[in-house]
Amino acid sequence: MELNDKAEIDTSQVEDARGSGGGGGGIGGLPIGGGGLTGIIVTVLLALVGGYFGINNLGGSSSGGSSTADNTTINKECKASDGSNQQAANATKLLDCRNVLYINSIQAYWAAELPKAFNKQYEKAPTKIFSQQVSTGCGAADSGVGPFYCPADNKVYIDLTFYQQLAKELGAPGEFAQPYVLAHEYGHHVQDLLGTEAKMRQEQEANPDQANLESVKLELQADCYAGAWAKGATGVADSKGEKLFKSLTDADIQEGIQTAGQIGDDTLQQRGGGSINPAEFTHGTSADRQKWFRTGYDSGDPAKCDTFASGAVKAGD
Ligand SMILES: [Zn+2]
């Protein structure tokens, strides 16, 4: 995977709420990733991004979470000083700027694809990059939930240190895991725009015993949308026609598939030391997550991501 250092970079699509230096110190009573098993289970069940649901579980007070965005640092890192959207030198070597470019690519993809596939205009959603804790339209959250999308304020939230967790604790070290995570979250934004998410919630309320299965369908669809973006990624260009990705190889796609496999509910339950309990699945098995990512990638057509079609995803999958 190679990003184009000549492509424009649009930092206005992110809100950097990490604060200067990220000092802050300890957070009362929130041992993030600390307690071995517990830390991992919490991370895992809500990661990738169960925060979509997990965030409601957090609920608690929003004390401590800084939510004020200040893009001064990220602008300096990523953008040339002439005020244009040209990249600063070496921007593509930096984690921050690479992630901005992933987000630019994903949103440009949907701006073109959503009208084609679903006859719907895309509306941009920012990604809020936070450190440790953040207040959101869905309540207060800490990094332990992993990245998530909040339908109430239409924002994606990520603490970029999650990637280290993905690499070290969850066995997905490949860099393509990063755009896959973001594309999955933007998949939830697309579901929000299309009304899929609201419909699924109604379905959950009407049939509480099917709530987890409905969640699995929503999550697998987001994986499929991520695959569709991956297929289209090398075609995405900036306003001057410069491609954002110079290359995306089979090895990258394999990393995406590997990541999907590492965060399936069955794999995570095993990793957490427990037995596999399909009734508790909320995101789908490793095999299903891989299958649906691949469905999106192979077809390059988000309309093929109909996990809600009768029989497409079965209970216990
Ligand atoms: Zn998700």
Description:
With 317 residues, the chain is of the alpha/beta class. The protein contains 11 helices and 8 strands. It has helices spanning 37-46, 51-58, 72-78, 95-118, 162-168, 177-194, 196-206, 211-232, 250-262, 265-271, 286-299; strands at residues 2-3, 14-16, 127-129, 133-136, 139-142, 148-150, 155-158, 245-247. Strands 2-3-7-6 form a 4-stranded mixed sheet. Strands 1-8 form a two-stranded antiparallel sheet. Helix 1 packs antiparallel against helix 10 (265-271). The chain binds zinc ion (ZN). Residues 49, 52, 184, 188, 219, 222 line the site of zinc ion.
Keywords for this structure?
four-stranded mixed β-sheet, alpha/beta, 11 helices, binds zinc ion, 317 residues, two-stranded antiparallel ribbon
